[in-house]
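Here is an idea for our session: we take a single protein and study its fold together. Start from the sequence, derive the backbone structure tokens from it, and show both lines together. Once you have written the record down, we can walk along the chain together:
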Amino acid sequence: MAWRHYEVRQSGECEVQNGPHGSLAQFEIGIVETGRTRVFAGHFVRLALNDGEQITGEHEQSLRGALWRLARNIAPLGYVLNCAGISAEFNESGLSVDTGWGYWGHQKEPIHMMDPLPVDAEDSGDLDQMIREAVEGMQIDISLTLEPAPHRPAREAPRKAGRGRAAPLSGRPAPSANREPAYSLRNAPRTPR
């Protein structure tokens, strides 16, 4: 009895490069279940190459992780995936994570992770060079006007009184521990018995 079950949720065609030649290959995306009760064990992406060989990438936590493992598994055979999901420009939202759908850069239209790279991505050139040119063209003008702090006369400055307490602004000395408390039994009003 097989304990690992592959439940296919999506299938289609994707572009695969083999040296200078590109071709289409069939893919399947889904979840891996294991055990008699079919407990969730992860995600998979399977690719059927032209020679009939099937290569699978699995990941326990992420569908994109399974795609990256598939790309790593086909690399020794000389194949390279041409799909959006393996690029850093592909982003998933909180609602689209592990569905295969996401967004490319700043585009508002959704794109499937197995779709080919958008045309503008191939012609974007060297990203480092583009950033350097953009930074060189920036002009940052900052003008600050600093207001002087208001000057307080010395008599308004807080002074230290006995035992580390500040004197109140009224000019009266702060109460200290060796003076009488503000309320005592001697000052209490007497009531007849």
